[in-house]
Amino acid sequence: MADTATARRSRITPEREAELYEAVLDLLREVGYDALTMDAVAARTRSSKATLYRQWGGKAELVVKAVRHTKSGETDEVDTGSLRGDLHALVTREDDCVMERNSALMRGLAMAMHHNEDLLRTFREQLIEPEMAGIRRVIRRAVDRGEVRPDCPALEFVVHMFVGGFATRALIENQPPTRAFLTSYIDAVILPALGVRVP
Amino acid sequence: MADTATARRSRITPEREAELYEAVLDLLREVGYDALTMDAVAARTRSSKATLYRQWGGKAELVVKAVRHTKSGETDEVDTGSLRGDLHALVTREDDCVMERNSALMRGLAMAMHHNEDLLRTFREQLIEPEMAGIRRVIRRAVDRGEVRPDCPALEFVVHMFVGGFATRALIENQPPTRAFLTSYIDAVILPALGVRVP
């Protein structure tokens, strides 16, 4: 009976989880990854450190889950029937306002990963890999439909092309990618490289 | 007479300049940009701080010039008669060994730029801009020769495509770009996006 009550109390509702992630992102924006402590998260969210560790294991995982939570929708839900439709859908899941808001946060995390193996590994496993797996599924369906030739050499470089689109604006032009920019980039670069005609 | 002697002594020979840049790069690899001081450079190279400041103006400029010095050849010297030849020539100016050696150094500098406006501006002005101008000249000649259509939408994204090739290996695959990788990427992505057939 006591055990059931404990289990129930430690189960977190989706609303509470969302609230907690928002608080983590706010703290990240305020102090950055290195200065963020589990104590501060516990205080800000009025939860116990024990709960945070039990639920997330540690700071890196909590932060990465919070970032992942800002991404609306899952990559594998996208299936519009054409490669162009799927790629456009993938990059318009977030509105420009969210991308703008998260751009500095993501740059800060990228810096922290440089000297933080744990964060880098968690980020790769929980964010980059699932995103890339989703893109690979979208591309495989395009090959299966006959839209892209299975021996197209650009198939090896889909990730590189995407990163070029996302990162260059941030690095060189110092501005977040917008939906308009990303859809033009897909039409001008990714689809032609994959041999798909843009109407 | 005294003035001439002073002028002669403050004039730096190309050999001395190369030696100085090597020392700066060694120090950068040892301590990173933030911890690098002009005092340490002066001590290591047995020169006076006054000379360093007179010659380079400051730390950011000295560091960027040292990095630029590792790049053999100038972008605008490349003119093979075809876009494919020019792009391959551009990315094979440095051998894999140099790219490997400089990869960690460049990542460190990218991190330092994040909180160092002065370094970011100097890096953009003295390294990225001339490199991009060189690429634009190569592309313009291809358009003039009729190799690339002047209204090709990928023309706007040449820089993004290049950055995708260079940065993704470093960021996601955690390895420096090799000549073999970059030439395949040009053939599989950049040329097809520009509508140039690869033999």
Any overview of this molecule?
The structure is a homodimer of 199-residue chains. With 199 residues, chain A is mainly alpha-helical. The first copy, chain A, folds into two domains: 2-66, Orthogonal Bundle (Arc Repressor Mutant, subunit A), CATH 1.10.10.60; 72-193, Tetracycline Repressor, domain 2 (Orthogonal Bundle). The first copy, chain A, has helices at residues 2-10, 14-35, 38-45, 49-56, 59-70, 83-91, 96-114, 117-144, 158-171, 179-193. The relative contact order of chain A is 0.11. Mean pLDDT of chain A is 85; it is low at 1-9. Chain A binds chain B through residues 107-108, 110-111, 114, 124, 128, 153-154, 156-157, 159-165, 167-169, 171-172, 184-185, 187-189, 192-193, 195, and chain B through 107-108, 110-111, 114, 124, 128, 153-154, 156-157, 159-165, 167-169, 171-172, 184-185, 187-189, 192-193, 195.
Oligomer: homodimer
Q: Total number of helical segments of chain A?
A: 10
Q: How many separate domains of chain A?
A: 2
Average pLDDT reading of chain A? 85
Q: Roughly how many Å is the radius of gyration of chain A?
A: 19 Å
Total beta strands of chain A: 0
CATH topology of the largest domain in chain A: Tetracycline Repressor, domain 2
Global outline of chain A: elongated
> Strand percentage of chain A, roughly?
under 5%
CATH class of the largest domain in chain A: Mainly Alpha
* Biggest interface found: A-B, 31 and 31 residues
Q: In which range does the helix fraction of chain A lie?
A: over 70%
CATH architecture of the largest domain in chain A: Orthogonal Bundle
Q: Provide the CATH superfamily of the largest domain in chain A.
A: Tetracycline Repressor, domain 2
Low-confidence stretches of chain A: 1-9
Order of helices and strands of chain A: HHHHHHHHHH
Distance between the termini of chain A: 64 Å
Structural class of chain A: mainly alpha
- How can the largest sheet of chain A be summarized? none
Organism (chains A, B): Streptomyces echinoruber
Protein name (chains A, B): TetR family transcriptional regulator
DNA-binding region (chains A, B): 37-56
Pfam families (chains A, B): TetR_C_11, TetR_N
